[in-house]
């Protein structure tokens, strides 16, 4: 509670478009403790996975080929609720009713199952 009260009296929430001192300190610690030289903070798992998918596609397209866009996902995988993350998820139920999407149809959905 004390931490929440202290934070509430300073900065409660801001878009990640803006930076702030605690985020910069955490980013520095992560950089020092890992191989990374930059840090991306997200507000949800879906947003983090969305960024990871975009990064993977950007890397493959810019380094190898504009046709390297396939993302392989496991059957019944769950990566979040954004259009991109549901499109690479394995669950038909959360894709139903979203219509055809070039981004969805250009991806390879693996049918690998652990069952
Ligand atoms: C593996 C995995 N990826 C992504 C998500 C989505 O996270 P969020 O609900 O924070 O967007 C979840 C949530 O349960 C998850 O388990």
Outline the structure in words.
It is a single chain. The chain is mainly α and 115 residues long. The chain has a single domain (18-115), classed as Type I PLP-dependent aspartate aminotransferase-like (Major domain) (Aspartate Aminotransferase, domain 2). The chain has helices at 2-8, 21-33, 45-63, 83-87, 102-105. The longest helix has 19 residues, at 45-63. Residues 104-115 have low confidence and may be disordered. The structure holds pyridoxal-5'-phosphate.
Give the SSE map.
Blueprint: H1 2-8, H2 21-33, H3 45-63, H4 83-87, H5 102-105
Bound molecules: pyridoxal-5'-phosphate.
Structure in a nutshell:
By secondary structure, the chain is mostly helical.
Low-confidence stretches: 104-115
The CATH topology turns out to be Aspartate Aminotransferase, domain 2
Small molecules bound in the structure, each named once: pyridoxal-5'-phosphate
Number of helices: 5
Mean pLDDT level = 83
Task: Report the structural category.
Answer: mainly alpha
Question: For the terminal residues, how far apart are their CA atoms?
Answer: 45 Å
Radius of gyration: 18 Å
Give me the CATH architecture, please: 3-Layer(aba) Sandwich
Supply database-style keywords:
mainly alpha, 42% helix, disordered C terminus, binds pyridoxal-5'-phosphate, 0% strand, Aspartate Aminotransferase, domain 2, 115 residues
């Amino acid at each position: 509670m004390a931490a929440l009260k202290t934070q509430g009296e300073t900065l409660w929430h801001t878009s990640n478009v803006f930076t702030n001192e605690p985020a910069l300190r955490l980013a520095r610690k992560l950089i020092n403790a890992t191989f990374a030289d930059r840090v991306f903070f997200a507000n949800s798992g879906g947003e983090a996975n969305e960024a990871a998918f975009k990064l993977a596609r950007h890397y493959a397209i810019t380094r190898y080929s504009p046709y390297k866009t396939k993302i392989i996902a496991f059957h019944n995988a769950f990566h979040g609720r954004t259009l991109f993350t549901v499109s690479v998820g394995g669950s038909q139920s959360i894709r139903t009713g979203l219509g055809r999407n070039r981004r969805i149809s250009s991806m390879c959905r693996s049918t690998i199952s652990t069952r």
